[in-house]
Amino acid sequence: MRALLKRVFRDQRGLSLNETLIAVALVDIAIAGLMSTMSFAGANIDSGRRATTALVLAEQRAEQVKAFSVSRQPAQGFPNLTSTTFSDETYGGISGYAEYRRTVTVTDSPGGVANTKLIEVKVFYTPVANNGPAAETSTYISTLLTR
Description:
Blueprint: H1 2-10, H2 17-70, E1 100-108, E2 116-125, E3 128-129, E4 132-133, E5 137-146
Antiparallel strand pairs: 1-2, 2-5, 3-4
């Protein structure tokens, strides 16, 4: 009996079927965990991309408003800058960005400060959730212009 045990423990030519099945099961569990993490990460990457795009679009519109306010062209310039100068852009209204819309609000003399205008730019978009479209989300920037 002792010789048989020595021979069994000394003989390490391979793995048994049970050991192989257990190893395969553990690898399957690990891969399933990684796959679920990857889908979650992919959704977060897309969410970040959409938020960054919205911020870039808001900054772009704010720069257009600033350029209008300092322009010396007829019908432009600081005195002609109002909320109606920049109409709201609807979904599909921004070239190349059909999933976004923008609004511009101009407030004259905010807080009673003369010769200033408060510019507020909002960009709206609908993020994609795991179960379809989610509620509309927005990015907001504001700047104060003086004469």
